[in-house]
């Protein structure tokens, strides 16, 4: 154990981080946390490389291989759920690697890092479900208080009630049901664990996808529509999408003197007096965008149609080829990217910020929509879990009777 090595490394990291944050504060950078995380990751990579050289080992090849695999497929096709699986496979390999390097080099820094991860994991195992239920109930109260009382806005409450039912079932079921049938109690738990793993995968790739930084060479920015207030004015949620697109428009205009055109994409709902695209154009013009820079797509009623009909407009306008991106709320851009991929539109998304209290409900809604998109796979998996548990229960009954 080389204590002086680890103390020097830690002091060097801490001093460098303080210097970095001070510089970012003077520049009033809005991305201090992101820069600090990037610096920490880079410093940890250099430290691990130093340990590898000192230990004369090549264990780092393992996580680097899995990261390279993830990066290769992500760069080829970003809005794919498989990229989430590959990224989480990299995280698992990284944890295994850190464990190996901790025991082979006795690094206090790596052992301390693993200790923190272990404590966090233990807390999740002991209190995770109860803490999650409390959080979901509190969040559902905020959403219920500030948003409409529609079914999509009650998802956090529904999930909390489902978890409470599962806890009651697991705690009291064994004392009520016969012994051979206890295996059947594992069905809801196993299905919940399966969906949690799928949700974690979706959440991972959704957050990664939000790190998109499109090049400033776009010909079009598609703004995805959303419901109008009073049937004719842009809602606060839709305004955020338009403002995000406008910010990109002005940034590219300043840097290249060649701004992109807007495609306002949104049809007219049954409860709307005008098409969403028309209201969006009016709002953008009020924000200083020239009307001639705005095209309208006013036939779509779904995100898939947003992408398909907008692509048709761009194909007609620029048959020789074009560069395009789309703007929506941050929680929505990954699924929107999947739809763009379905219609053959090569476009990355840029996300508008969403109120933090609404994000849990919004991501749950997106997750449900993606489950529906891949419903056959999930039906098969749930059926296999159920079948396995039923067969096990039958076997227990036959053996004990």
Automatic annotation (TrEMBL):
Species in which this protein is naturally found: Enterococcus florum
Domain of life: Bacteria
Regions that span the bilayer: 6-24, 33-51, 57-74, 86-103, 109-142, 154-173, 185-209, 379-399
Name assigned to this protein: Membrane protein
Pfam families in alphabetical order: DUF218
GO cellular component: plasma membrane
InterPro entries: Cell_Envelope_Assoc, DUF218, Rossmann-like_a/b/a_fold
Record keywords: Membrane, Transmembrane, Transmembrane helix
Annotated DUF218 domain residues: 219-367
């Amino acid at each position: 154990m080389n204590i002086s090595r680890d103390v020097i490394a830690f002091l060097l990291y801490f001093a460098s981080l303080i210097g970095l944050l001070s510089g970012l504060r003077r520049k009033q950078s809005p991305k201090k946390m992101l820069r600090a995380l990037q610096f920490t990751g880079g410093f940890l990579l250099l430290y691990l490389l130093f340990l590898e050289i000192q230990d004369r080992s090549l264990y780092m090849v393992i996580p680097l291989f899995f990261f390279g695999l993830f990066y290769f497929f992500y760069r080829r096709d970003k809005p794919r759920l498989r990229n989430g699986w590959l990224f989480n496979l990299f995280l698992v390999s990284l944890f295994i690697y850190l464990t190996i390097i901790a025991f082979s080099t006795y690094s206090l820094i790596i052992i301390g890092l693993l200790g923190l991860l272990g404590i966090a994991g233990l807390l999740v195992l002991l209190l995770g479900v109860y803490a999650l239920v409390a959080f979901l109930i509190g969040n559902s109260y905020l959403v219920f208080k500030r948003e409409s009382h529609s079914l999509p806005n009650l998802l956090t409450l529904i999930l909390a009630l489902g978890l409470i039912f599962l806890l009651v079932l697991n705690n009291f079921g064994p004392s009520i049901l016969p012994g051979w049938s206890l295996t059947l109690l594992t069905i809801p738990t196993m299905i919940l664990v399966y969906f949690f793993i799928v949700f974690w995968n979706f959440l991972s790739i959704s957050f990664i996808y939000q790190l998109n930084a499109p090049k400033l060479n776009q010909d079009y920015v598609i703004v995805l529509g959303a419901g109008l207030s009073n049937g004719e004015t842009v809602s606060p949620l839709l305004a955020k999408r338009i403002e995000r697109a406008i910010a990109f428009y002005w940034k590219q205009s300043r840097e290249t003197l060649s701004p992109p055109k807007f495609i306002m994409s949104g049809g007219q709902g049954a409860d709307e007096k005008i098409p969403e695209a028309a209201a969006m154009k009016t709002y953008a013009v009020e924000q200083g965008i020239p009307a001639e820079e705005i095209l309208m797509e006013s036939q779509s009623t779904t995100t898939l149609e947003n992408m398909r009909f907008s692509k048709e407009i761009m194909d007609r306008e620029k048959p020789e080829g074009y560069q395009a991106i789309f703007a929506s709320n941050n929680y929505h851009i990954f699924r929107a990217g999947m739809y763009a991929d379905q219609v053959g539109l090569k476009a990355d998304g840029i996300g508008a910020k969403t109120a933090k209290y609404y994000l849990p409900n919004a991501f749950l809604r997106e997750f449900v929509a993606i489950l529906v998109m891949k419903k056959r796979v999930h039906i098969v998996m749930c059926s296999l879990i159920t079948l396995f548990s039923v067969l096990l229960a039958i076997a227990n009954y036959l053996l004990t009777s």
